[in-house]
Design brief:
Elements lengths: L3 E5 L4 H16 L4 E5 L2 H4 L10 H25 L4 H14 L9 H10 L16 H15 L7 E4 L6 E3 L9 H16 L18
Parallel strand pairs: 1-2
Antiparallel strand pairs: 1-3, 3-4
Helix pairs in contact: 1-7, 3-4
């Protein structure tokens, strides 16, 4: 079992920032992370989208689902090991390079897969619903663990039976000793019986890179 399950959607900037923090913790420690899927498009199926944002969210979250389909195809073929790196590639293209449109084509996705040493043909999964049940199963697992009124990311500490939370939502990924300090703090809260929420609605502008 991994030390942490990290449920991600590639289009969410907050999940991206949290993932960069977790990757910094991985760099400094021996924790093992299982990078699992949560589709914001599926999460919002029952809630619906605000009318004024429906077109934008449908398009953005649709891209997230298409890339998670590809990640599911990679996981089916190669196991969990390549998924963290693939998330890094997707997130870098979307959040750092600001080139999400290149990932709306199978050719653009195939180029990233080939660069990582994965079969470019797996990009074809982006336009197929064949692995939607796989993405949905991970999504439903995240919601079962953390509750349905949440966003991304969802983290499970000590899976499968440890506590799960939406977040932490951070505007900037800490590095060095600060990253470890935040990790230890969040892990301590996660281990405290009955702890459910620590939240404020004021957020800084996300610093994605």
């Amino acid at each position: 079992m991994a030390d942490l399950d990290f449920f991600w959607d590639p289009v969410c900037p907050w999940a991206w920032i949290t993932s960069r923090w977790v990757q910094e913790v991985v760099r400094q420690t021996d924790i093992d992370v299982d990078w699992r899927f949560i589709s914001l498009k599926m999460v919002n199926e029952e809630k619906g989208y605000p009318p004024e944002l429906q077109e934008r969210y449908t398009k953005t979250h649709g891209l997230g689902l298409s890339l998670l389909r590809v990640a599911a195809a990679v996981r089916e073929r190669h196991g969990t090991q390549p998924i963290g790196g693939l998330y890094t590639d997707f997130g870098t293209r979307i959040h750092i390079e600001r080139d999400a449109p290149s990932l709306r084509t199978t050719a653009g996705i195939a180029e990233l897969l080939e660069r990582r040493g994965l079969e470019p043909s797996l990009a074809g999964a982006s336009t197929s619903d064949a692995l939607d049940d796989v993405v949905r199963a991970d999504t439903e697992l995240a919601l079962a663990r953390a509750g349905r009124d949440i966003g991304t990311p969802v983290l499970t500490f000590g899976p499968p039976d440890g506590y799960s939370f939406f977040g932490p939502v951070i505007a900037k990924a800490p590095t060095g000793a600060d990253a470890i300090r935040l990790w230890e703090t969040v892990r301590t809260l996660a281990a405290f019986p009955g702890f459910a929420e620590l939240k404020r609605s004021i957020r800084s502008t996300p610093e994605v890179g």
